[in-house]
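User: Could you go from structure to sequence for me? I need the amino acid at each position, not a summary. C-alpha cells:
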C-alpha cells in the first residue's frame, strides 16, 4: 500500500487497523512518513506506543522488524555478528584440505555468507513489500553507548562492518522508537527524530477504543469501565492503568459474565487493572466503592441531561 498523502489519510489508515489516534499523533506519523524521519514516541507504559508501529506495518502491508531493547544490548544482538561456529568449521575444513593460505581463508570466512543479520541490519536490506517498519522498542532500557551507536544508523541509514565495509539502505526503513522515560534519551538522538508524547486518551476516545477492541462488552459495562479507569488516573498511584490494562480488565469482566461494576467485582479483579500491591491496597474496598458511587451519579446526571 502507498503512503498516506495527508493527515486525514493517515487517520483513516490507522482507523482501518482499529487504531484510534488523536490528530496530533496522526500528524507526527504523517510527517515522519513524508519526511523519512524516525518517529520518537515517549509516554507511560500501556498507552499504545508499540502498537503504533505494529499498526503501521499491518496497514501499509510492510514487514515489521522489532528490536526489543534491554540493559546490556550490544551490536552483536542488535545489528550483526559473525557465525563463529561455522567459521571454525570452515577453517578446520580448509586445514584438512591442505589450504594454508591464511589471507584467503580470512577473506572467505568474513564474507556475507557467515554474517548473522540482526534486526537493524535486516531493516536496511531490501524487502519485497517495500521498506519495513523498524520498531526500536523501549530505548530507555539500553545503555548510553548503544544509544550513541544508533546515531549513524538514524542519520544515514547505514552501518559499518569493518571486515566488509559500509552497508546502506537503498530505501530508508520506517523507524519508530519508543521510550517509557525511565531515563532521559540524549538530545543528539532526539534531534534526528520527530518527537511525540503519547498521553492517556480522553474518555470519549477510550470508550471508542473499547468498543472496537471488545465488541462483546456491553455498552453499559464499557461506559462504567472507562469512567472508573479515568477516575483512577486522577489518583496519586505508583502506576496508572494504561489503555492495555483497560482492555485486559474489560476482557476479564466479560469472561466473568459481569453486566455492571459492583464493589466486590472491582475488588476481586483489581489485579488485572493495577500492577502494584500498594496501589491495589489503596483502591480496594472503600476507595473503590466511593469511585463507583461517584461514577454512577455522574452517569445518571448525564443520562438526565440527554
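Assistant: Here is the amino acid at each position, in order:
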Amino acid at each position: 500500500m502507498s503512503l498516506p498523502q495527508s493527515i486525514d489519510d493517515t487517520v483513516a489508515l490507522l482507523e482501518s487497523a482499529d487504531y484510534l489516534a488523536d490528530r496530533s499523533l496522526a500528524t507526527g506519523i504523517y510527517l515522519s512518513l513524508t519526511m523519512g524521519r524516525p518517529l520518537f514516541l515517549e509516554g507511560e507504559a500501556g498507552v499504545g506506543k508499540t502498537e503504533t508501529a505494529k499498526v503501521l506495518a499491518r496497514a501499509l502491508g510492510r514487514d515489521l522488524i522489532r528490536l526489543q531493547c534491554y540493559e546490556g544490548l550490544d551490536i552483536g544482538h542488535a545489528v550483526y555478528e559473525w557465525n563463529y561456529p561455522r567459521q571454525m568449521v570452515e577453517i578446520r575444513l580448509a586445514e584438512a584440505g591442505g589450504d594454508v593460505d591464511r589471507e584467503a581463508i580470512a577473506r572467505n570466512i568474513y564474507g556475507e555468507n557467515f554474517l548473522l543479520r540482526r534486526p537493524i541490519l535486516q531493516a536496511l536490506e531490501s524487502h519485497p513489500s517495500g521498506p519495513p517498519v523498524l520498531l526500536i522498542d523501549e530505548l530507555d532500557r539500553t545503555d548510553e553507548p548503544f544509544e550513541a551507536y544508533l546515531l549513524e544508523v538514524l542519520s544515514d541509514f547505514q552501518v559499518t562492518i569493518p571486515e566488509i565495509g559500509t552497508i546502506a539502505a537503498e530505501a530508508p526503513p520506517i523507524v519508530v522508537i519508543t521510550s517509557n522515560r525511565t531515563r532521559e534519551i540524549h538530545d543528539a538522538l532526539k534531534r534526528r527524530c520527530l518527537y511525540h508524547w503519547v498521553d492517556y486518551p480522553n474518555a470519549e476516545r477510550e470508550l471508542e477504543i473499547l468498543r472496537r477492541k471488545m465488541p462483546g462488552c456491553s455498552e453499559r459495562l464499557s461506559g462504567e469501565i472507562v469512567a472508573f479507569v479515568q477516575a483512577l488516573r486522577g489518583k496519586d498511584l505508583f502506576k496508572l492503568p494504561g489503555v492495555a490494562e483497560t482492555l485486559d480488565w474489560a476482557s476479564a469482566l466479560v469472561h466473568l459474565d459481569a453486566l455492571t461494576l459492583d464493589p466486590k467485582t472491582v475488588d476481586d479483579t483489581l489485579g488485572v487493572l493495577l500492577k502494584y500491591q500498594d496501589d491495589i491496597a489503596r483502591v480496594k474496598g472503600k476507595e473503590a466503592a466511593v469511585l463507583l458511587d461517584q461514577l454512577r451519579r455522574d452517569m445518571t446526571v448525564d443520562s438526565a441531561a440527554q
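One structural detail worth keeping in mind: The longest strand covers residues 174-179.
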